[in-house]
Write a structure and sequence with these properties.
31 strands; 28 helices; binds adenosine-5'-triphosphate; globular; GIY-YIG endonuclease; EC 5.6.2.4; ATP hydrolysis activity; metal-binding; Arc Repressor Mutant, subunit A; ATP binding; binds zinc ion; 829 residues
Length: 829
């Protein structure tokens, strides 16, 4: 056939709004069999035909159609497609679900190291230079000399050498005259690391002779003997760990006794962690039943979600380990998600101790290079287990059998960048499309997840007992209002004080927990515990320092700050909190002999500091550990018998409908650190709101009652899981312009809703626009509008947002305003 053309539909790797769609390119005949769905290609783009990297999403054949306006693909970048067809489907699905850009979704699936960057190279055209007619300026001469000297160089390096403005102007002009030529090349940003190794090249029979020939050089002889035992050794290792300097190595090199070879090496982030074996445990009855049931589902490729609700210390990790083992035995691969790798060193240790190898780690602390290497280990099949935070859910496995989300209630599973996905949603998608089992685990499942259990969408399995027969800790609530009445103004109740004392005498360890989030933004009464809330939203009001007013963070209603408590008329109506540092000083002054350590963001900002503190806590050097949220997760220290929660109220009064849930979770999680060994654990929980259902039920460790109460309230105020929230944020440098822009969008949303017959309900659907809780960040102003939708209008609302903020964005929002859409916000900030 004459006019048959192969057309590639591509996504250009560029985050400009206008480019967020598929573009057609002709595939030149020589590439027809190479360029497929998922191949990365180089394409010319725009008027200047600059080269861009692009991803092929589809290949079509066109017959007798006019393709004269289309450009041609320049060439493929890789030999094999970099995205599978499954992944392309997932990217399209993510775009539809989160209203993000294609390229943003692609960037979730492919690590930064793979995504290429365009580099510009520059060189001099000698002929044109010789023929030019005018006198050059000094700077022109300097630049030309510099470039000629180097041959062909990256333009970036000119910017380092000369001032940007000068270079920019000069090279533009010289380029127009053809004196210099600029070439665009797309290049991988990450270099593959090559390591140099040394090995003996002397055969066995010549060995003795060679050894004798260097009698005078004792160290060279020693190196020979050293290498004799080994195949090859890294130069860096010889130099750094074994004291063989370069001259010694060069000595043997010059005599042709050794040679140096180069091998590609992968950066291994686990390299410097020591490996302690963690042998398989005989599962107890509760564990066994669950392991058997889920293994059966894995073996039969069933699409199934399990929620393991197991009290703290019930041995969930052992279940995960055995499930992963069974998955590998089936020749399949597994993903284990943890809230934060650096905060869950014990979990990682156990997996490494059990499986030794084949584990790849994905987390935010990796350099681009490390991330790229880990990704390639997974893609090439070298690793069959991935452990990691959020991003690990995108691990490029091709035979996925099992996904585990440990501590599934943790908020770190929600991405704060676009696409604002929740790991659980991606995991559900992969489970469904790759026939694999999803396991969620928590001692305190999120209300949404447990609700899915009630609705039989997920299968809930319970672990009611601690694994090593330890008893659950005993939680005692201390009413801080009574302390004040009795004249104790200290941050420690008398009870907590004396328990710490006792614990120190018994040589047991103590954890003191202080929550920093939401610290002193709300107003409460120290005499009666009353907290001022919005009448409409049941949300604690936020105190605004500048206006000295109280404002509801959800609906925007303003209230005047009371001078005395509306409940008990006390003048003690302001809340004063303390930070961890101050707390550490206080505790040290109360217990001068105790060894105290602090674990918070400040104390652990140095690399490795977190692990160091944990190690010395484990070894028993530290008596009292003071910490923030960092110490609530997965720590298993048998010698901790006392946990003190300094105040449950900071969290309780967060302007967030999930505040009671978070308090409940946090109290149970941090309490769960106590009494995991032979001795019983005790928890002292201090609060100004002892009657709050969240505190009372946490003290009883009664998850089910808490769940029921919470669900009742969510239903009454129409919060998730009974509604879906959508949050739209506008950020801009010009306060007024940003506000007007979001107001215009809000009006449009209302207008369209009205035209679709929603008239009376508008006030129950659209809230705002309001100032963001963090109103001014880096001189940019932030406003948001919150939408509350139900099953029947969700699709409509999504379509409206898509129309206003994506498809017709240019019409409604100027380019200097950043818009962000969150389809299921966990926090509204
Ligand atoms: N079958 C078993 N036999 C003996 N010990 C076990 C068994 N299963 C688990 N353990 C031990 O019980 C302790 C608690 O287990 P693990 O840390 O897995 O609890 P968890 O459910 O993850 O708790 P948390 O939710 O508090 O993190 C660990 O020290 C673990 O080694
Ligand atoms: Zn009061
Ligand atoms: Zn309100």
């Amino acid at each position: 056939m004459e006019n048959k053309k192969y057309i590639a539909e591509v996504i250009v790797n560029n985050s400009v709004n206008k480019l967020d769609k598929l573009f057609d390119y002709i595939i030149p005949p020589q590439f027809i069999n190479i360029i497929k769905e998922g191949t990365r290609v180089l394409v010319p783009f725009g008027k200047g035909n600059r080269q861009f990297e692009a991803y092929v999403f589809g290949v079509n054949i066109k017959l007798d159609e006019d393709t004269s306006k289309l450009k041609e693909v320049i060439r493929p970048i890789d030999e094999e497609p970099i995205l599978t067809i499954n992944q392309i489907h997932m990217i399209k699905w993510m775009k539809g679900k989160y209203l993000c850009k294609y390229i943003e979704a692609i960037q979730c699936l492919i690590p930064a190291g793979v995504v290429n960057k365009e580099k510009r190279f520059i060189y001099v055209n000698r002929e044109k230079l010789n023929n030019h007619k005018y006198e050059m300026t000094e700077i022109q001469k300097d630049i030309i000399n510099y470039v000629e000297e180097k041959g062909k160089i990256n333009v970036e390096s000119l910017y380092k050498r000369f001032s940007y403005n000068e270079v920019y102007r000069v090279i533009k002009q010289l380029e127009n005259e053809g004196i210099i030529i600029i070439e665009n090349k797309v290049d991988s940003r990450i270099d593959i690391i090559k390591e140099k190794y040394v090995r003996l090249v002397i055969s066995k029979d010549l060995y003795k002779e060679a050894l004798d020939s260097i009698k005078g050089a004792k160290r060279q002889q020693e190196l020979m003997e050293f290498l004799k035992e080994k195949v090859e050794v890294k130069i860096s290792e010889l130099v750094n760990s074994h004291g063989f300097g370069r001259t010694i190595i060069n000595g043997l090199l010059s005599r042709n006794i050794v040679e140096v070879i180069e091998k590609e090496s992968k950066r291994d982030p686990l390299l410097n962690l020591e490996l302690k074996p963690f042998p398989k445990l005989e599962p107890n009855d509760e564990q066994r039943v669950i392991i058997e049931e889920i293994t059966e589902a894995i073996n039969n490729n069933r699409v199934e979600t399990y929620l393991i609700h197991g009290v703290t210390g019930s041995g969930k990790t052992e279940i995960y380990l055995q499930l992963i083992e069974n998955t590998l035995n089936e020749g399949k691969q597994g993903i284990v998600l943890v809230p934060e790798i650096s905060l869950t060193p014990q979990t990682v240790e156990r997996f490494r101790g059990r499986f030794k190898e084949g584990i790849a780690l994905f987390h935010s602390g990796l350099s681009d290079g490390e991330r790229y290497d880990e990704w390639r280990r997974v893609a090439s099949g070298e690793a069959n287990i991935v452990i990691g935070a959020r991003s690990a859910i995108f691990a490029p496995f091709n035979n996925l059998g099992l996904i585990i989300i440990d501590e599934e209630h943790e908020h770190t599973y929600k991405s704060d960048l676009s696409p604002k996905y929740h790991v659980k949603e991606i995991a559900e998608y992969r489970s469904k499309h790759e026939q694999s089992v999803l396991v969620l685990g928590s001692a305190t499942p999120s209300i949404e997840s447990y609700f899915e259990g009630v609705e039989s969408i997920v299968k809930v399995r319970e672990l009611k007992n601690r694994a090593r027969n330890a008893k659950p800790p005993n939680i005692e609530v201390i009413d801080m209002r009574r302390e004040l009445e009795c004249g104790n103004k200290s941050i420690l109740s008398r009870r907590l004080h004396s328990e710490i004392e006792k614990n120190l005498e018994a040589k047991k360890q103590t954890i003191l927990f202080l929550n920093r989030r939401g610290y002193s933004t709300f107003v409460s009464c120290r005499s009666c515990g009353h907290v001022v809330k919005c009448k409409q939203c049941d949300i604690s009001l936020t105190f605004h320092m500048t206006s000295k007013e109280l404002q509801c963070h959800y609906c925007g209603d303003k209230y005047t700050a009371p001078r005395e408590c509306p409940e008990c008329s006390s003048k003690n109506i302001k809340y004063f909190g303390v930070g961890t540092q101050k707390l550490e000083m206080l505790i040290q002054s109360y217990f001068p002999k105790a060894v105290i350590s602090r674990m918070d963001l400040d104390a652990t900002s140095k690399k490795g500091a977190h692990n160091e503190i944990l190690e010395s806590f484990k070894s028993g050097e530290i008596d009292i550990m003071i910490g923030t949220q960092m110490i609530t997760k997965g720590l298993d220290f048998p010698n901790v018998t006392l946990v003190g929660i300094i105040t449950a109220d900071t969290m309780l009064n967060m302007p967030d409908f999930r505040a009671p849930e978070k308090v409940f979770q946090q109290v149970l999680q941090v309490s769960g650190r106590a009494g995991r060994g032979f001795d019983e654990g005790k928890v002292i929980l201090q609060t100004y709101n002892p009657e709050h259902y969240s505190i009372m039920l946490a003290a009883k460790q009664d998850y089910i009652s808490f769940f029921e109460k919470e669900v009742e309230l969510r239903k009454a105020f129409n919060y998730p899981p009974f509604s879906k929230l959508i949050n739209i944020t506008f950020t801009g440098e010009n306060e007024k312009e940003t506000y007007l822009a979001i107001s215009k969008i809000t009006d449009n949303i209302k207008y369209i809703l009205k035209s679709k017959g929603y008239t009376n309900e508008l006030d129950d659907i659209v809230f705002g626009p309001n100032e963001g809780m963090i109103y001014r960040v880096k001189n940019k102003y932030r406003f948001y509008v919150l939408l509350k939708s139900n099953k029947e209008n969700y699709t409509l609302l999504k379509a409206i947002i898509k129309y206003l903020l994506i498809d017709s964005r240019q019409k409604f929002v100027s380019d200097n305003i950043i818009t962000s859409i969150d389809m299921n916000p966990l926090f509204i900030v």
